[in-house]
Amino acid sequence: MRPRIAFAGAHATGRMKETPETKIEILRGDITKLTVNAIVNAANTTLLGGGGVDGAIHRTAGPELLAECRILGGCRPGEAKMTRGYRLPAGFVIHTVGPIWRGGKHNEAHVLADCYRNSLKLAVENEIKTIAFPAISCGAYGYPIEDAAQIAFKTTRDFLAANDEIQKVIFAVWGQDVYEAYQRLL
Ligand code: AR6
After folding, report:
1. Which of 88, 114, 174 to mutate to test the pocket of ligand 1 (most atoms within 8 A of CB)?
2. pTM
3. Residue 56: exposure state from Cβ atoms within 10 A (0-12, 13-18, ≥19)
4. Hey, what domains does the chain have and what are their CATH numbers?
């Protein structure tokens, strides 16, 4: 069984070599409960809140989050912007906007990969070491779950293989179907 103390002593000498595989973890549950440096929000282009995970994050973080989002000027699909986490246990929220599924021929896969890549890039720029992602676009935006899970894993693994700074990526998934799709790829 893998040890679950991956954050502790991450800079100590003599620790086991971390690989993209050992840095990725899947958790089933509410992303707003996680004590990580940053959680990612599956937002919309206004960044002014909505349903699903976006609604849960705004409810838990409190009105200060919306106030900060108001000055960000929105966000294009595939891009990422960061705010503080306010009343969340996570210190920061990285807001990204996934693609709306329109059959797969409208650049959806590229945009979804950009969400993961740009969120991780922003995390590194801000010295974030531990980050949790929801299943971006897998709810209201209708992305087929298997395909979205593959993009989440491949983009994250590629990023972690090229960047040492991030210590832990948690895929915090809600539904059983999404959880099973992610488990198959671990
Ligand atoms: N923790 C983790 N995952 C969650 C949580 C939670 N608390 N709540 C829902 N999920 P969605 P999208 C899962 O619809 O598809 C919003 O209105 C959910 O089961 O939140 O990117 C925005 O404002 C699903 O698997 O995001 C946008 O308008 C996944 O999170 C639009 O929805 C993503 O579902 C974005 O749609």
Report:
1. 174
2. 0.93
3. middle
4. 24-185 (3.40.220.10)
